[in-house]
Amino acid sequence: xxxxxxxxxxxxxxxxxxxxxxxxxxxxxxxxxxxxxxxxxxxxxxxxxxxxxxxxxxxxxxxxxxxxxxxxxxxxxxxxxxxxxxxxxxxxxxxxxxxxxxxxxxxxxxxxxxxxxxxxxxxxxxxxxxxxxxxxxxxxxxxxxxxxxxxxxxxxxxxxxxxxxxxxxxxxxxxxxxxxxxxxxxxxxxxxxxxxxxxxxxxxxxxxxxxxxxxxxxxxxxxxxxxxxxxxxxxxxxxxxxxxxxxxxxxxxxxxxxxxxxxxxxxxxxx
Length: 271
Description:
- The chain is an alpha+beta fold.
- The protein folds into 2 domains: about 35-90, 3-methyladenine DNA Glycosylase II, Chain A, domain 3 (Orthogonal Bundle), CATH 1.10.15.40; about 105-265, 2-Layer Sandwich (Alpha-Beta Plaits), CATH 3.30.70.
- It has helices at about 1-30, 35-45, 60-65, 80-90, 130-135, 150-155, 180-185, 210-215, 225-230, 255-260; strands spanning about 105-110, 160-165, 165-170, 190-195, 200, 235-240, 240-245, 265.
- The strands form 4 sheets. It has a two-stranded antiparallel sheet. Strands 2-3 form a two-stranded antiparallel sheet.
- Helix 2 (about 35-45) crosses helix 3 (about 60-65) and helix 2 (about 35-45) packs antiparallel against helix 4.
C-alpha cells in the first residue's frame, strides 16, 4: 500500500514538473513583447480610467501613445500638465503645453431643491434622468433643472457626485475634472469650471424672471444687477440667465453680493 502511494505521488510530481516545463517554454516562445515605455506611461497616469482622453482607459491611452502616430500627450484631463511632462520625458519628445490650463471641477448649475422647485407630476418609471426628462421634461415644475435620478453619479469614476435634496452635488475634493457627468446630463446643466473660481451661477433656467421664480424659488430673474456691477465685464445675462466668463473674472465677489435671489453663490473648491 505504501508503494502504491509513493508511486502515485511520483507520477503526480513528474506530471507537474513536465507541465511547468511546458509552461515556461510556452511563455518564452509565445510571449508578446511589450514596449517598456507603455508600462512607464501607464504608471504615471492617474488610473481613473475616466475615458476623458477618448480612449477606453489609461491602458489604452498609454498603448496608443507609444504605438500610434500623432496621439497627443495632452489628453489626460485629471493628470493635467504634470502628466504631460512625464509622458514627454518617457517618449523623448518636446513638452507640449497642456490644453488644461488649470485643474477643473464639475459644477451642477441648479439649486432647485425639493423645497424650492415644486413638482408638476409624479414620476414612476425607470430611475434615469434621460428617461424621466423625455416625459414632459421631468417631474419638476422647472424644465431646465436637475432631474435628480443620478445619471451623472452613475458614470462618475471618482464617486464624486451624489443626489442631495433632489439635486446632484459634486464633491470638489474628489472630482477629477473628466467631464463625463457633463456629457451624460440630458439637461446640460453640468459644466467644468476652473478650480480657483470663487463664484458660480446655480441656475440654468432661461425663462423670464416671473415664470422662472414661479417654477423655482432659487431661479435667476435676469435682473442684470450682476452684469451692471461687474467691473471686469465677466458676467453677461443672455436668454434670461446670468453666465460667468472665468477668463475675465477677477473673483471680486461683487456679483454674489448684489444678486437679489442668491443664485450666484460663493464657493471655495480648493478647500
